[in-house]
Amino acid sequence: MKRFAAVFIIISLLLPLAAQAQGVSPSPPKSAPSPSEEGASPESKSSRKIVKLDLEDMIGNLEKWKQDDPDRYEYMKKLLHIPFVPPKDYVPPTVLIWYPSGKTNITRNDELDIYAYVKNDNPIEVRSDVYLWLEAKGPGEENYTRVGSSRVILANEYSEKNNVTTRDWSGITPFVDSKVVGNATLRLWSNDMHSTYYTDTMYAEPFQQDDYYSILELELVNSPPRAEAESIRVEPVRARYNDPIRYEARFVDDDGDMINVTLHLLDDRGMEIRNETQDVKSGTNVTFVASQYGFFGEGDAGKNFSYRYTYGDGLDVNGTDAFSGPSLLPTPKIFVSDRTFDPEDENRYWWQKYRFSLKVKNPEIANLRVDLYTSTPSHPDRYQDTKIINASEEAQSVIFELRPFDVSDANQSFTYSFRYSATDQNSREEIGDLSGDSINPKIVRYPIYSLVTIGNVLAVLLAALVGGIVIERRFYR
Amino acid sequence: MNGLNETIAGAQAVEISPPSGLVPQGLTNFLAELYSNGLLGLALFLLLLALGLALHRLNMKRTYERVAATTKGGEVSRDELREEMFIRQGANFNAAAVTAWMLLFAAFGYFYFLTPEIFPRYNYYQVPALASGPLGFAAFGFVVLLLALGAAAFIPREFYGYYELSRKMKVAIMLTGPVLAISIFLSVQQGTTFPQVEQASRLLAFLALFASELELLWPVYAEALGGMR
């Protein structure tokens, strides 16, 4: 009986304490209040002292505690922190690079297909999500950089058969901006929510079997760009300074790299005047329009220029030889017209006079020189005569009347040309290869009954007769 | 001169005017072939000369042997015999003969080397400065005369000094001068009408040239023929 009385007394004393303990429990979130809370009777509120904690109050208190008593705050954090402890039999997933193409020499523009091979032998209830990044380190670089976006593998995404799954980074060009060639490496970064791993360090030694790598080492190579020599031209080669002169060329890069093409404009001594650069796709024409860049001005009229190209793909730079052109035509000083040619008569014998004429408007050149040349197969480019004319606002006729041919020109076609000491309206200093028709084939200008011919024959006969008499007197007596 | 050569070819291709009625057609063709072939003409001209020279030596040798045979063992000097045999033909004949021989070479030059028709690469028109001038024909003739001067000076002395020449023979030889002048004149006419070719003139010039040459050499040939008989 005594024992029963003692238990009753203790329970009677503890009941109020239990009720008090229930009153300090945290209230549910403010946003989702529970329906039982709303229906509570006033008797229960008044009978039990319940401390209602508001979330904002809680946060405010935590901030206050952090400031006021940082030591105790840190201690509380330690009490509340629950470190994750993987199960005893948890095994980190195996992560490898799968590179099925096997191509080890790559260019910057080669599109690579790289896969992550992940094998997770943990039971599905133990597996956690695995995050993956592909990381690349180009030639000459010290640090890896991430390529593309991350990949995630959920716990249920492994093959049930062999607990393996893959993730791909297809068509990537991780070294497209590389400025040097050489060794390039790739690795995988992975995190299984427990730890972070790098495939190049997570294994005791580098792994490589078939197409699977712990670290993928590639050789970044480059083919230098080439100039297609036959495509290099400037048109027109002879032009006025303000004509639409175009420099055109085509360059090819076997790697498909963009080509940086620089046109170097050279003066008549081969010294560079200026240069301009364009970036072009491999195999496409690059065109520099002189007027667009303002290459030439009026002061360049009459000068001869040349040019060359340098071209590179960012890794290798080459240059072409120098090509001549354009030759800029001088500014016209005279205007020529109405060139004519008239034989003495329609027979056109070689011994006859021929009249060649030309009209020249020469407003500014003093002592303008006009030369006449004729050309036959027997006497190609034969100088005939020169006329000098002075400056005048009126057009002047320049007339040559002469016998331009000899017997060897008989029965031949001839041409004639005028050359002058100033530039004409066609930016030329001659007007040439003007057809003059053919010369009569008759060779001897004197008929048999002419005094000249008869005199010639008589002279020979007389000479023979005199010779006979002299010899007879000298040697026969 | 390529044009000239083409002209020649054209001219030769249109030879349409044979000397009709002068000689039979077959002979005309033969003569045309003969006179248009420069190498053949040159060879014939030189052959006649060489044959004359050879026959002259033969005649002289035969005469010497006959004289030597009549001396009955006495020796006869060749030089003395030549000296004894030499006949003075007269100043007029000698002058005419030398002139004729000079004209023979001149006529030969005019016939073959005036126009480019026969020797396209070796002719008077290859010297345009000369051919273009008014004195070209004369200059060409003077050059030929100068070249022939040596031969013309001494051939008549050798060929006519050791033969008995009848008066008719002398006249015939002296007449070769005018005949050769006609040949020269006809050749010059060919030159003035070139590239046209007048076949009759050409044939006449050719006949005059070679007939004169034969006539000038005839005393030698006649003596040789007589000796052979």
User: Largest interface, by Cβ-Cβ below 8 angstroms: which chains and how many residues each?
Assistant: A-B, 38 and 47 residues
Strand and helix order of chain B? HHHHHHHHH
Terminal residue distance of chain A: 209 Å
Q: Into which percentage range does the β-strand content of chain B fall?
A: under 5%
Bulk shape of chain A: elongated
Uncertain segments of chain A? 4-8, 12-46
Average pLDDT number of chain B = 82
- CA-based gyration radius of chain A: 53 Å
The share of residues in helices of chain A is: 10-25%
The number of distinct helices of chain A, counting runs of at least 4 residues, comes to 7
Instruction: Compute the average pLDDT of chain A.
Output: 85
Low-confidence stretches of chain B: 1-20
Summing up helix and strand content along with how strands pair, one would put the structural category of chain A as alpha+beta
Q: End-to-end span of chain B in angstroms?
A: 53 Å
Number of helices of chain B: 9
Helix content of chain B: over 70%
The largest pleated sheet of chain A is described as:
6 strands, mixed
Textual characterization of the structure:
- The complex is a heterodimer of chains A (477) and B (229).
- With 477 residues, chain A is an alpha+beta fold.
- In chain A, 18% of the residues lie in helices and 37% in strands.
- In chain A, strand 9 (208-209) and strand 10 (212-213) form a beta hairpin.
- In chain A, helix 4 crosses helix 5.
- Chain A is elongated.
- Chain A starts with a helix and ends with a helix.
- Residues 4-8 and 12-46 of chain A have low confidence and may be disordered.
- In chain B, helix 3 packs parallel to helix 9.
- With 229 residues, chain B is mostly helical.
- Chain B has one domain (23-224).
- Chain B has helices at residues 2-13, 25-36, 38-70, 78-85, 91-113, 128-131, 136-160, 167-193, 199-228.
- Classes of the chains: A alpha+beta (477), B mainly alpha (229).
- Chain A binds chain B through residues 350-351, 377-378, 406-412, 441-444, 446-448, 452-453, 455-457, 459-461, 463-465, 467-469, 471-473, 475-477, and chain B through 1-4, 6-7, 91, 94-100, 102-103, 106, 115, 125, 128-129, 131-132, 134-138, 141-142, 145, 149, 152-154, 157, 177, 181, 184-185, 188-189, 191-195.
